[in-house]
Amino acid sequence: MAAPDAGKLFVQFAKVGLSGFGGCLPWAQRALVDQLRWIDQKTFTELLGIAQVLPGPNVCNLALIVGTQFAGWRGAAAALGGLLFAPCLIVLALGAAYAHFGHQPQVHAALSGMASVGAGLLLASALSLFRGISRRRVDVLLAMAACTALGLFGWSLWQVLAVQVPAALALHAYTGRRDG
């Protein structure tokens, strides 16, 4: 398959942006990996890992990385522009509607339901991403340690990275010597 140009990147990331109420990540994964097959699951997981440690929204960083890989700076601009253009217009319209109707109890009920859907999408995305990581015990252990540090102990991402990066390097060096 030929690499997508800036126009295709814009259109596909616009579809992702319009699909992603509550979070675009599951839709980006579905589009890039399952439907378009521009990248495989392992590559998606690796690129997402890079996107997560960069400042800014993960899916925006992912769009920039994917766009750059396929079409340079034009691809990066097209992917990010496609991802954000229509949702920005929708958010402006919804903000104006909320300013007018926000006091209604039905609005609060709808927002509560949307939060539940967003949490479900995030969980589904996490489970899907887990498929893309190695099943070696050391990798599963590192993933569980990161989840525990973030979720139970409330560590920041930077604290987890400060501990896990050296630990991962040491564990992989040790298991690589032992296995090889």
TrEMBL record:
GO molecular function: chromate transmembrane transporter activity
Predominant cellular place of this UniProt entry's protein: membrane
GO cellular component labels: plasma membrane
Keyword match Protease: no
Intracellular or extracellular location(s): Cell membrane
Record bears the keyword Transmembrane helix: yes
Top-level taxon of origin: Bacteria
Membrane topology, record value: Multi-pass membrane protein
Residue ranges of the TM segments: 77-101, 107-129, 141-161
Pfam family, any one: Chromate_transp
Keywords: Cell membrane, Membrane, Transmembrane, Transmembrane helix
InterPro entries in the record: CHR_Transporter, Chromate_transpt
Family: Belongs to the chromate ion transporter (CHR) (TC 2.A.51) family.
PANTHER family: CHROMATE TRANSPORT PROTEIN-RELATED (PTHR43663), CHROMATE TRANSPORTER (PTHR43663:SF1)
Protein name in UniProt: Chromate transporter
Protein's organism: Crenobacter intestini
